[in-house]
Amino acid sequence: MDCTKAREMIQDHIDGRLPPDSARAVREHLGACRACAAEEEELRRVGDMLRLWSAVQVGERELALSPLWTRVRAGIEERKEPGLARLLRRWFWVPVAAIVAVVALLFYPSDGARVPFHPKSFDVTVESLESDTATVALVDKGKGLPRVIWIIENGKT
Amino acid sequence: MSEKEKAHPPDEDLVRGSLAGDEGAFRDLMERYKRRAYGVARGIVGDPDEAQDVVQDAFVKAYYRLKDFRFGSNFYTWFYRLLVNQAIDRWRKTSRSQTIPFDEAWVSGDTSDPEAMVYPKTPEELAENRQLSEGLTRAIAALPEYHRTVILLREVEGLAYEEIARVLDCSVGTVMSRLHYARAKLKGALKGFREG
Amino acid sequence: MGRPDSHPGRRLTAIAFIGLLLIAQIAVASPDAQVAIDVGVVVASQDGPTIDPELSSIRNQLQSMFNYSSYRMIDRLKRTLSVDETGEFGLPGDRSMRVTPVPAKGNKVRLAVQIMEGERNLLTTTLGLSRGGMVIVGGPSYRKGVLILIISAE
Lengths: 157, 196, 154
Known about the structure:
Chain B is mainly α. Chain B has helices spanning 3-7, 11-19, 23-45, 48-65, 75-95, 123-128, 130-142, 145-156, 161-168, 172-189. In chain B, helix 5 (75-95) packs across helix 9. In chain C, a hairpin with a 3-residue loop joins strand 3 (87-91) and strand 4. Chain C is an alpha+beta fold and 154 residues long. Chains in contact: A-B, A-C, B-C. Chains A and B meet through helix 3 and helix 4 of A and helix 3, helix 4, helix 5, helix 6 and helix 7 of B.
């Protein structure tokens, strides 16, 4: 296993996501290659530091249950109402809630919304195009197709 | 029921109790998760007071949505999903135009100082190293919000990829991609410090 | 569980109504002030013939433009940005993309885009699109293939 291959797999190795033979191959490579072993150590250290950091943050806050419970309870109370007012609200809220939800969706996109792509136009003006470390090209693939900006990293085919 | 079960009922029992109107059961759930909830919220929103508000709001929401909880699934995955959505919403509302360019968030280490080169092994040691702990806070805040969330859920909360995918309602591939990005970024930010 | 406030219903109804007016106001008054950016992060390779179901709506276009047999979507990022607000999109392989909407006229959107790999600048470009338009940026290698970013702006 060469370093390039090993580097690609180090994070999967740290997370225990590699099948047994790959894991073994990576372990062997790390045992023999100091540079890759250092890389693995640095990546593991990220996790170690995050755990310590979180412990410090949580430690700095006194999260007493009583005051938290009082506040949560108050939040629950706020949502409760006497009968008639609740009925009126329900009747009024449904169209309002629907409108608010639609507007919210327009302004606050949600993660994980697996919506297909529906491009309305491929008409794109490229006002400027440059790169410090690669060759970039603007490619027109033809009518009815999107324009493509292609990055050719120097030193790679 | 064994003594142990009586002292530490599974989450599902507490959920059932809460649904039946037992205040104490919901309080127990809160006691069980309040620290971890705060840790997650703190990591996402950045500000301790905002984080506390987020935890409160998440518990209120959980109280109302308990009836939608599907028995047989993990309570904490269900709760974390509520919590994470609450935290990300809050973060977006309060820091929308504050994208910190990552280069400014690098943890700068004074490498001539031998003290600064040793990595802490305990929270107390980290707390004593102001430069490192503040640098970490900045570096974490500089990650895009979903990448930040993924690495916190994985490294601090120890959730598996599949669980993180359920919490964020995305694919396992997306979880991996964001996790790897975040780890690489934070590794770079820690570059200033070297093992003594 | 305690005594609730006596007229929360009426107060909340009034607030909701005013809230709705405000939201409507924002929606009408500044349609151009915000841009919703949608980025699909795809890994294209020769590693088997799979096309991610999420790409089915543009599958024909991808196959006419490129010679890859496999297109896998590994991330989908969406952000709404105001003019001059910079959004950062994390990309695989220690890369990131920064997008800043810049002032534009009418129904057009102009975006200043930068793609970085670590410290290195891979691309700096300014693009003009109409709302609902799409552009593709690709080329950086990733694992066994290349990254192709499907960028739309609304």
